[in-house]
Design a protein that fits this description.
Length: about 300
């Protein structure tokens, strides 16, 4: 595997850091990755190692407010105005770079958790430019942020300011995820059954931080937007979609919420939808104890659609 990381200027001149992993052989296809909230794209290197062996190139940006794009973990989640509109624009600008570097290779988009929400918005805007999309650890139509509500997030934003952290919103959104795993060893047992992976997440200064109230507010607004009928109707009906989640992932209501989302997409007329729900799997299936099987299933789907 060849690694050639780089940065590119976003529309507002923010420098976006990108992990770029290339195969030794000719590129068969590209996987662009949109990572989750409070993590970094560096965590997808193991996936990239498996993909590059099969001829896939991987481009994974540290999205604004995350990782090396912010440089200092103290600024995690500080994104300015229109967080998700800008994240979408950043991804689309990156896709232009990808196509200029690989003009004949098809491009797939994988989004995990928050990244799966970004992916849903991307499909409505630029889905026709993709060969397919993968949603990992996503939520159902009644997602966890719906419980909070835009009003609560707005009041917290007023209370703590634009960059102020909100323990209340963090607890309301993520605090319940560990309940089904009590007695828990850590606050992040809901991520994976593999204690080493959980400990790596906790030890990473760019992972697991409490985000500003403004970020949560933007997220609640964005989630309402992508669920609107007119947005769903913009997703290309012939675009292949692959969902995978753990059956004990609280974000996806233990896969029940994901199944409801799949049904919505099927009812919209999207013809090629595949999914895998893994028994006892938690939120991060790519970091689970059965991750080798999960990765191979993903590669098999990519091979079929490349």
């Amino acid at each position: 595997m060849i690694q050639k990381n780089f940065t590119f200027p976003a529309a507002d001149k923010t420098e976006i850091y990108v992990y770029k992993w290339l195969p030794e052989q000719q590129v068969k296809a590209i996987l662009m990755i949109s990572h989750g909230m409070a993590e970094t794209a560096a965590r997808y290197e193991r996936l990239a190692e498996a993909l590059t062996k099969c001829g896939y190139a991987v481009y994974a940006p540290d999205q604004r407010g995350h990782g090396k794009t912010i440089k200092d973990p103290a600024h995690a989640g500080e994104t300015g105005e229109d967080t998700f509109g800008r994240m979408l624009g950043d991804l689309h600008r990156l896709s232009g770079i990808i196509k200029s570097e690989n003009p004949s290779a098809p491009v797939f988009l994988l989004g995990h958790s928050m990244g799966s929400f970004i992916t849903q918005g991307y499909l409505a805007r630029w889905g026709r430019e993709l060969k397919g999309a993968i949603l990992s650890g996503t939520a159902g139509p009644a997602d966890f942020m719906t419980v909070i509500g835009q009003g609560v997030a707005y009041l917290e934003k007023l209370r703590v300011g634009a960059t102020g952290r909100s323990n209340l919103l963090n607890t309301l959104s993520f605090g319940s995820f560990n309940k089904q795993f009590q007695p828990a060893r850590t606050d992040f047992d809901w991520l994976s059954r593999d204690p080493k992976e959980v400990d790596k997440y906790i030890a990473d200064p760019f992972c697991g931080g409490i985000f500003p109230a403004a970020f949560f507010f933007d997220l609640t607004k964005y989630l309402r937007q992508i669920k609107k009928q007119d947005q769903l109707e913009k997703i290309p009906k012939n675009l292949p979609l692959y969902f995978f989640s753990g059956k004990k992932d609280p974000v996806g209501a233990n896969a029940a919420g994901v199944a409801k989302l799949i049904k919505i997409y099927e009812n919209m007329g999207i013809a090629d939808i595949s999914f895998k729900f893994y028994e006892d799997g938690r939120h991060e299936m790519l970091n689970e104890i059965n991750r080798d099987i999960v990765i191979q299933d993903l590669i098999s789907w990519l091979d079929k659609h490349s």
